[in-house]
Amino acid sequence: MALEDFFSNFHLLIRWFHILSGICWIGLLYFFNFVNIPLQGSLDDATKKLVNPQLMPRALWWFRWAAMSTFLMGWILFTLKYMYTPGQGFGPTSLFSTESGLTARAVWILMGMLFGSTMWFNVWFVIWPSQKKILSGQFSGDALTALRTRAAKASRVNTFLSGPMLFGMIGAPNYGAVNAVTLLVYIAIAMIVVKLAYTYSLKVGVKK
Ligand code: HEM
Known about the structure:
Shape: elongated
Distance between the termini: 59 Å
Bound molecules: protoporphyrin IX containing FE
Strand order of the largest sheet: 1-2
Structural class: mainly alpha
Order of helices and strands: HHEEEEHHH
Strand content: under 5%
């Protein structure tokens, strides 16, 4: 019975948790970039002071821990799928490489993991430290503006990386041969879609 197969069940749970956390993380990233930025532009300072101390710490808690969980589950998944063979132990599997080098699947997932891990780094070492300082209320004037700019830039970079990152995740088990041109085409498609989402986020939903 499949439920007795520890490796398969562990693998499925990790994969499920990886995607669940990823939805939470990227969903909040899109909330910040496509909903909250346009919203903040339409609030006066008094309303911001009322709303943001309630909204931001909660949203940022889920955001950074979902990023951490996605990242950790992703690396465990990588180990289970590409670096471990049940009964034989650790080492690159045939899904990762053959005598002729890296497999197409490995190239896709390495691209996705590079982008995803960069995004995780930005969350934990750029966005969250800046947001923590902003929320402390100890900064004002130019220092506050610099912190806001730093956090906003990293968040925008992450939003652009999220599109190609997801192609890497889903390309790995679903797409065959790959080369640099294929990767560049999919990176370009994903970034154009993100750019369109930014453009429309300023126009959609609310009647002016
Ligand atoms: C943060 C760094 C990340 C790492 C290290 C990582 C790693 C991985 C690995 C190793 C796989 C398995 C690929 C395979 O079976 O060949 C995978 C699959 C996947 N990941 Fe990620 N990932 C990351 C971020 C994300 C994020 C942010 C999302 C957003 C939702 C995501 C969504 C997915 C999806 C949808 C799959 C495909 C699952 C399937 O086909 O069953 N990943 N990831």
